[in-house]
Amino acid sequence: MAGLTTAIFLKTHRMKISGIWELWKTAGLILLIVLCEACHKENRKTKPLPEETPTRFISAADISFFPEIEQTHPVFYNLNNQPQDFLRILKDSGINTIRLRLWVSPASGHSGFEEVRQFSAQLQDLGFQIWLTVHYSDTWADPAHQKTPTQWQGLSYNNLKDSAEQYTRKVVKHLQPHYIQIGNEINPGLLLPLGNRFSNPDQYLELLTVCAQAVRSTSPDTRIIMHYAGLEGSDAFYQQIEDLDYDIIGLSYYPIWHGKSLDSLQNTLQQLSTRFKKDVLIAETAYPFTLQWNDWTHNIIGSEDQIILPDFPASPQGQKDYIAYVRKMITQNVSGGLGFCYWGAGWIAWKGNEAKDGSSWENQALFDFNNQALPVLQEFAVD
Question: Is the Cβ–Cβ distance between 168 and 214 less than 8 Å?
């Protein structure tokens, strides 16, 4: 009996231990699932770059206006005249990269940090690469405007430099772009007057250097673009920053402002790539599909003397042929050619056809006045 009692005791004890072990295993599995889900959510917040190499050819569209336009709930139509999500139309056309502007503290909140952070996360979830154009301003920065953000005005140069560096680090850490511009069309410099490339060249170069270093130390895989508007003076611009640590030369090219010779564009891109041993791309371009308008806002282009005739009339076919030519040029005729970006791709007349503060670009968008996709979208597919 004593032996039997002992055997029963041991069996019961083993069953208890086994039961406890099963409970521990179940609890451990649940904890592991919870931890994995938490890590997944955290990773979604930071949006780390994918490990694979970014797409070699950049087929990009700038749709910085879209978060504002989307609030009016426009309906877009694909090339088959079927209603479809705007971003899906771009994705299906072959666009692989979205370019977004970023302002420091815009009055409206549009193109500010939080809007761009949320939008870029949405775009990355859809499989787009992100190309940020950091303006270092509260509003448009271009060859005529490089105004220091309000919150940085009055700072000493050293404090301004520190602010720009920390801001760049924050942007890269939280948005994790594949490509980033240090400034936008910085022909005269950035953060004027202290960052003027002519009157304060040392400070200008130092500002670029600390911002580039902030990118490198925060996200080594993010490629840095230096962006100049036009052809004339571009050689001197890139010569001045020859010692800067960056990856890509980017030029804006619009016939209305930068001349109507596509041969000059090609030659300039090739010369810059060869001399400075960099990849080159067309950071901004666009072309009209009509000279008409869809609201009462003055359009940038409205007459034939502003476009390239007779090769590229202001028509859906002319717009398509222009982008086809540009794409062939950058892919086949320029060694080091990396891609192009179509600016204002979705800047339709979203405020209504009588708005005087609507779109000055609706006749250069990738969608017609009925929000239907134009044939030009067929030229964005990557072979």
Answer: yes
Whether 328 maps to a domain, the answer reads yes
Which among 139, 143, 136, 149 has a CA at the least distance from the CA of 183?
Answer: 136
**Given phi > 0 = left and psi -120 to 50 = alpha, else beta, which region is 41?**
alpha
Residue 86 lies in a domain: yes
* Domain membership flag for residue 238: yes
Residue 54: predicted pLDDT: 53
- How far is residue 65's CA from residue 90's CA, in Å, rounded to a whole number? 15
263/256 Cα distance (integer angstroms): 16
Q: Which domain holds residue 318?
A: 55-379
Q: Counting Cβ atoms within 10 Å, is residue 73 exposed (0-12), middle (13-18) or buried (19+)?
A: exposed
Quick: pLDDT tens for 345-382: 999 999 999 999 999 999 999 999 999 999 999 999 98
- CA dist 213 and 246 (Å) reads 9
Place of tokens 């140069």: 157
CATH of the domain at 151: 3.20.20.80
Instruction: Calculate the CA 36 to chain-centre distance.
Output: 30
Number of domains in the chain: 1
Among residues 115, 185, 362, 379, which one is catalytic?
185
**Is 52 an annotated catalytic residue?**
no
Residue 260: both structure tokens together: 């109507």
pLDDT of residue 55: 58
Is residue 31, in this structure, part of any structural domain at all?
Answer: no
Residue 185 annotated among the catalytic residues of the structure? yes
**Catalytic site residue from 114, 115, 165, 284:** 284
